[in-house]
């Protein structure tokens, strides 16, 4: 039997196959597996991004001017009037510094580089569907501009009880304007080893 004959036989039998599992369930299962695989990498990327953002942005009043002068080109953290915290990361430098700044501003966070997640961090056991968990995260972290992958606004008051953030930063070499720092953010269980509280 050659390849053409095999293809013909398979096409003829394709019409006799029935599927009892709904397509939505198959797709949802695949997305869940990919999400579990991405969680450690996302945590690392989100953490690194948070660090870079704190050094680059203008410092809030709670941070004395000049405290982060050596790292201002890398990241910034600025508290807004509505108690949001704007984070921008321009370079992958000093995740621990960004983490300390965020924690000082009341954000329980673990900040790392992509691929170097904090092993003490555990995913937040949110209830509901994946869509509901995504919606919860989007109420805690928003993007100032949808296409801006290196900045975010954190709303600490929206964090669920017992939750913190992991932030991981990665350098992406996409063609064109998408190249640069990309932050990944997710919810984790707050603990002294993971988020400092």
Total number of distinct structural domains: 1
Can you list the strand order of the major beta sheet? 1-2-5-4
What is the global morphology? elongated
Low-confidence stretches: 51-71
Percentage of residues assigned to helices: 25-40%
Estimate what percentage of residues fall within beta strands.
15-25%
List the helices and strands and how they pair.
Layout: H1 3-14, H2 23-56, E1 75-79, E2 85-89, H3 95-104, E3 109-113, H4 130-140, E4 141-142, E5 151-154, E6 163-172, E7 180-189
Parallel strand pairs: 3-6
Antiparallel strand pairs: 1-2, 2-5, 4-5, 6-7
Helix pairs in contact: 2-3
Please provide a written account of the structure.
The protein is of the alpha+beta class and about 200 residues long. It has one domain. It has helices spanning about 5-15, 25-55, 95-105, 130-140; strands at about 75-80, 85-90, 110-115, 140, 150-155, 165-170, 180-190. A 4-stranded antiparallel beta sheet has the order 1-2-5-4. The radius of gyration is 21 Å and the shape is elongated. It starts with a helix and ends in an 8-residue tail after the last strand. Residues about 50-70 have low confidence and may be disordered.
